[in-house]
Structures
1.
Amino acid sequence: MKNKTSKRRLIFQLAAVVVLVAIAYAMTIIGRGHTVYLDNKKLEYNGKTYETPYKVVAFVDGEQVAKLYDRERGSATCIGQKITVTFEITEKKGGSETTQTYTIPLPRNMDGIIINLPAYFAGLGEDAYLTEFIPSPDAEIVEEDTPSGDDFGLGDAGMDDMTMDDMSAG
């Protein structure tokens, strides 16, 4: 009877571990957060130039996340493997505004994702419009020379010129 109970307990423990591992894996796919950078920058790709629209306003979940003119970047944070963005695009200054909604799949292996809007609007492939954001390293820190042993910045205060007799007379 004891052997049967221990086997049963072991089966339940293994089942619990398998369920927890499955939940953890699902959460890495479903609940992964991404920072998506929207670039409104001119792109040279395969010998062709893709120009920027005059103005692009981006909305995620009904909230405006960016208003981009030429050579500007905005960002949005999303959870999951896709982002749905509504763009209000004005091609030329004073021109009419068009509204387009896109659902953009996001790669699992990138945290910071840059989407080049002119390339995306032109219908180019993922290799053209999607890149990973890699922050630039901080500027090299230059350390100043610190004085040795002089905590008050007084230097020798003329002590070299004084003799022991001068100090005792003083």
Note: The chain has a mean pLDDT of 83.
2.
Amino acid sequence: MRKNPLTLVAVAAVCVAVAACNREIKPDHKGGFLVQNEKLVELSAVNVETQFTPEGFALNYFNGEPTATVRTGDYLILYGDYKPYALTAYKHGAGFYEQDSSKASASDAITVGPMKGETAMFKVRFTKPLPAGIYLLECTLGKGSIGFPFRIE
């Protein structure tokens, strides 16, 4: 059976073009990341703690500062055994950030899906605009809770 060299060259060109199209930005170590303008920004992880109000209501809080600002078109990458379960608004408290109980959970504003060709990386996309403020993507990690805080301006 005789093969046409032009056909082989065309098939090779298509394979190279398809491989070149999958140039997604991917982190090289585990953690939470923001993809902004084709650049990868590492998000600081914070422990999510719980305190009780005098009325007996539980409020989550975290120490630390949000290190990134999310803009339209940005998305997050979680690399590791993180299981996101909530996107919650927070407000500045006395030396820490506390859950803003006046705002509903914004978990319906995100979708979480696997990254192509990766089993331990997940892409978190924003499905609708969020009001300006501080947000925490809360995840389980093992038996504890960890969060990735960020700002929206």
Note: Helices lie at 5-21.
3.
Amino acid sequence: MKTARQLSIFLLLISALSAYYASYQMIIDPTGNSLGLPFYLLNGTLLNSYSVVGWILLVSVAVFSSITLITIIVRCRFYSFLIILQGVIIFIFVFMQMFLVGETFIIQYVSLIFGAGLIGLGILQNQRKMAVDIEKKVLREQKSHHHKHRKHH
């Protein structure tokens, strides 16, 4: 499971760093020029600048990926669920972009691969955690049962 955890950390780190960079650029330059985003992409959407997209990206991907990274490092019991959730959030964010903009770009497909990878890795780690928990429970019950039926001398 160490490999799955390390891969999760890698994908979350890349996602967080790229989202921090992109969201910062969108917030300080709402025209999108600093990222090479054409302003016409916002035509027909509810948005009149990239600033709102930057804030959404900052909170939903950059900050949430960072929180998830911390839960993995300190080994919180629920970190696998957060990995899955971050993958789903990335999927939703990218699909909303594709739907609203009506055009697709290579970075969106890369992001979808990262999201799918996170979902898969989170599920893998969650299944492993469930198996370990069941194994521990069975061992506890066996010990408890053994102690109840020992003969007293």
Note: Residues 2-126 form one domain.
